[in-house]
Amino acid sequence: MRRPVVGIIGNTYMIADTYPGHGTSTMNSEAIARVAECMPLIIPADPLYMTVDELMEACDGFLFTGGRPNVHPEEYGEEATEAHGTFDRARDGITLPLIRACVERGQPFLGICRGFQEVNVAMGGSLHPEIRELPGRKNHRMPTEGSLDERFSRRHPVTFTAGGPFARLMCAEEVQTNTLHGQGIQTAGPRIVIDGTADDGTPEALYVRDAPGFTLSVQWHPEHNAAADPVSRPLFTAFGAAARDWAGARRPHPVLKSA
Ligand SMILES: N[C@@H](CCC(=O)NCCCC(=O)O)C(=O)O
């Protein structure tokens, strides 16, 4: 059987500070190829180039990756302010309808950081532009100095709901994770289940209630050191199994089965 194809949502970057291109970190491709055991395919996420239907036909599952630009607040009914930072409207135009279509059809996805936030917004939730300004919250942003491994080092605990899909998948109710984000979930969408939180109350792990397929998503970055990290590895392995099920029969692999 051919390997399942996982569409890795690309971000827009300036190449050599001169002209725009699409891309993703090799950590994402590596995690999909070597841990999920699927074929990584980087997607130039822009509705000018493709439709959601075409993407769903071409790919068996999707990795909604991290990305510096924030989801546009119009997508959750708020006006943009300076605090909301920069945006990527082309990516919003693909990812938000694609998430809703995957939820409805049971096609698997794994959301990471901005991708986690996109899942919440796509399902009717909202984001806070700068969570470190909320009372009692810590700074979750990427350290401004240090090697890649230092910047992606584990910085806070995440506690999962006892008996929930994440606790079952990780065989632990508490894990340590990295953290590289400024925004965070403000209100969860009606079907979003927050299944893990940081020690300052920031939502860190979610799934979509009653979705027929795999929807596990995390605010941290499991793609770092995915093959060796005991928290990352089960997430990518379970996602790969869900994509294989979909590729084999074009049928969903439910979140609870995956855990
Ligand atoms: N913009 C959001 C999401 C942060 C995020 O995904 N960070 C990783 C960036 C990786 C990259 O630049 O590709 C926020 O700040 O909350």
UniProtKB/TrEMBL annotation:
Reactions listed under catalytic activity: 4-(gamma-L-glutamylamino)butanoate + H2O = 4-aminobutanoate + L-glutamate
Pfam annotation, one family: Peptidase_C26
Annotated SUPFAM superfamilies: Class I glutamine amidotransferase-like
Family per similarity comment: Belongs to the peptidase C26 family.
General function of this protein: Involved in the breakdown of putrescine via hydrolysis of the gamma-glutamyl linkage of gamma-glutamyl-gamma-aminobutyrate.
GO cellular component: cytosol
Organism: Brevirhabdus pacifica
Record-level GO BP terms: polyamine catabolic process
Signal peptide extent: none
Keywords, alphabetical: Hydrolase
Coiled coil: none
Residue ranges crossing the lipid bilayer per the database entry: none
UniProt EC number: 3.5.1.94
A single GO molecular function term of this UniProt record: gamma-glutamyl-gamma-aminobutyrate hydrolase activity
Pathway given in the UniProt record: Amine and polyamine degradation; putrescine degradation; 4-aminobutanoate from putrescine: step 4/4
Protein name per UniProt: gamma-glutamyl-gamma-aminobutyrate hydrolase
CDD domains the record matches: GATase1_2
